[in-house]
User: Which sequence fits this backbone?
């Protein structure tokens, strides 16, 4: 089955630690996106990548970093500089501009 | 920048009822999508519909690009239709290929 796999589903982080969220796709899509969702809110764009080895900041990139070394992989690192990282993180992919998005099932990150 | 407004914010219906959800946007768009987020957080793409009408089973959508709105119709609602419905658009200018999201319509279908 083609799709997007996010792991882990649940992640607990101590303050001051960096954590990396995985996003893998087998759809052969060029574009990939990371969103953050807080309870009862809509989605906010963290980073996106239209092509391998290139990525752009979204609206709330501070405290996050990404890489796009392979077409199928777009990991997100939540650094200690992110002051309020507890949220639901969603990864998406699309064939390119003007196409529908496919989302992964998300990772719930909690800072303890 | 472009504004995306969804209405109503909340909707409670009995199973079997029909509903219409609306998405208004303030500028021309290249891309408009409707999504359903289930209670477990999974986002499912319902329609990619920058213009025209599409149907998929009990769901259909219409976008009137010249009047800057889109409608999502749900017929014969089922409890599994509960969740939040989002509209997201990509403006035709200065978009950087980013989607702008509405705040969503929370739909509750009672058995």
Assistant:
């Amino acid at each position: 089955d083609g799709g997007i796999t996010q792991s882990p589903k649940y992640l607990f982080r101590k303050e001051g630690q960096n954590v990396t969220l995985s996003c893998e796709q087998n759809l052969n899509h060029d574009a990939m996106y990371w969103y953050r969702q807080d309870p009862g809110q809509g989605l906010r764009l963290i980073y996106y990548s239209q092509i391998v080895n290139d990525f752009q900041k979204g609206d709330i990139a501070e405290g996050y970093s990404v890489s796009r070394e392979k077409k199928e992989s777009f990991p997100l690192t939540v650094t200690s500089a992110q002051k309020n990282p507890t949220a639901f993180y969603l990864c998406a992919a699309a064939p390119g501009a003007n196409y529908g998005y496919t989302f992964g099932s998300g990772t719930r990150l909690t800072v303890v | 920048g472009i504004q995306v407004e969804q209405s109503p914010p909340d909707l409670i219906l009995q199973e079997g009822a029909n509903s219409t959800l609306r998405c208004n946007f303030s500028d021309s768009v290249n891309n408009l999508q409707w999504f359903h987020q289930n209670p477990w957080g999974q986002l499912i793409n319902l329609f990619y519909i920058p213009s025209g009408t599409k149907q998929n089973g009990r769901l259909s959508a219409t976008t009137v690009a010249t009047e800057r709105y889109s409608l999502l119709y749900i017929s014969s609602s089922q409890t599994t239709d509960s969740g939040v419905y989002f509209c997201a658009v990509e403006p035709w200018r200065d978009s950087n290929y980013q989607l702008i999201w509405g705040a969503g319509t929370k739909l509750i279908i009672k058995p």
Chain B has a mean pLDDT of 94. Chain B touches chain A at residues 30-31, 33, 35, 41-45, 47-48, 50, 86, 88, 90, 96-99, 101-104 (CB under 8 Å).
